[in-house]
Amino acid sequence: MSGKKRRVLVVGGGAAGMMAAIAAAGAGAQVLLFEKNEKLGKKIYITGKGRCNFTNACSPEEFPGYVSTNPKFLYSSFGRFNNEDVIRFFEESGMKTKAERGGRMFPVSDHASDVTGALARRMRELGVAVHLSSPVRELVLDSAGERVCGLVLGDGSRQEGDAVIVATGGLSYPSTGSDGDGYRFAEKAGLAVKEQYPSLVPMTTLEADAAQMQGLSLRNAGVRILDGKKVLYSGFGEMMFTHFGVTGPLILTASSVIRKPWKHDTLRMEIDLKPALTEAQLDARLVREFETGANKQLRNVLGTLLPAKMIPVIIARSGISPEKPAHDISREERRRLLGLLKCLPYTLTGTRGFAEAIITNGGVSVRGINPGTMEAKTVKGLYFAGEVLDVDAQTGGFNLQIAWSTGHAAGIAAAQPVQDAI
């Protein structure tokens, strides 16, 4: 029965699942999508602070450099459906787009709902049958466990299918329904699943004085994170202090790059508060400030160099009295202040949990997945796409691009007519 129209079942109505459904239906398959939530794209609605940074406008050649885990696995799927293709897809679907700082792409409207709306429209046009509030309990495999045959839904009913695409997301933002179902499905099918960690996530510090600066944002800071003498991350940009430690774009990106370092030890973070100045230039600036405000107390002189919330912290770390007049500051004390301004150290003790993580690091091992089709190597007709896979990237639209590329690849492959049936 060569050329039979495929019946494709998609588990998950997020970014990867919707794109997979669109690709499969566009390639001629009958597609049914099952989403446990009451609406599609629940996580899309909260990405980019509700604006949805849906991809990045970097050159396709640069893209792999922003992928933190298993970038080579994406070469095939990204090569066939890259960021330029995604921008074109949304434009052609009636959503106007715009580029912002760092190549971040957004809907012109600044409404994440436009992204979900464009995907939902395309699914309707292609005849995808969307079933909301329809959790999937388990996969149905043949007796040998070598082929997927369908799904069992939460109500116990069974859906037959020629192919199943698992696009259930990871563990981040569990309020959106991400609870690890996909990992359970993969393990039942005999696939290896890598341990999961929160990624693109705030970090906790040992030092309590971070909490004194809660809410303080540094727009132009330099950050280095070290494991002993080894530099794990170095970056420049925006970060913020919180009641538990640090967050902001620099910190989130760092968490993705260094990934899971918390098993054995702490890490050292060094903040350069004046990265635009060399030590010599900053020392000269301190000398000038102390000469100009010779009779002022130290805490008042530093007001020209530091945000108000940070002054007590820097002075406490320096061991100098805040009331000490500037003209009495010794050369050694000035050098201590200089050292803190160029290298304010913190001890990183870990990350916050999945509830605050943008994405999940870990998941279905890519060693068991065909990178061109997203099909499991050992189970025919079973595909995985999106965050459920052990692939993740830095912040800036790159993780949603992974969802689009892998979802598209899975959908196209799952829709291919059956050639081995008799």
Give a quick rundown of the structure.
The chain has twelve helices and 21 strands. The chain is α+β, with helices and mostly antiparallel strands. Strand 15 and strand 16 form a beta hairpin.
Structure report:
It is a single chain. With 422 residues, the chain is α+β, with helices and mostly antiparallel strands. It has two domains: 7-198 and 354-414, 3-Layer(bba) Sandwich (FAD/NAD(P)-binding domain), CATH 3.50.50.60; 202-352, Helicase, Ruva Protein, domain 3 (Orthogonal Bundle), CATH 1.10.8.50. It is built from twelve helices and 21 strands. It has a six-stranded antiparallel beta barrel. Strands 7-2-1-11-20 form a five-stranded parallel sheet, with helices on one face. It has a three-stranded antiparallel sheet with strand order 3-6-5. Helix 8 (279-292) crosses helix 11 (331-342). The chain is elongated. It starts with 6 loop residues before the first strand and ends in an 8-residue tail after the last helix.
Supply the number of helical segments. Answer: 12
- The CATH topology annotation of the largest domain reads as FAD/NAD(P)-binding domain
Question: CATH architecture of the largest domain, please?
Answer: 3-Layer(bba) Sandwich
Strand order of the largest sheet: 13-16-15-14-17-18
Proportion of beta-strand residues:
15-25%
Q: What is the CA-atom radius of gyration, in angstroms?
A: 26 Å
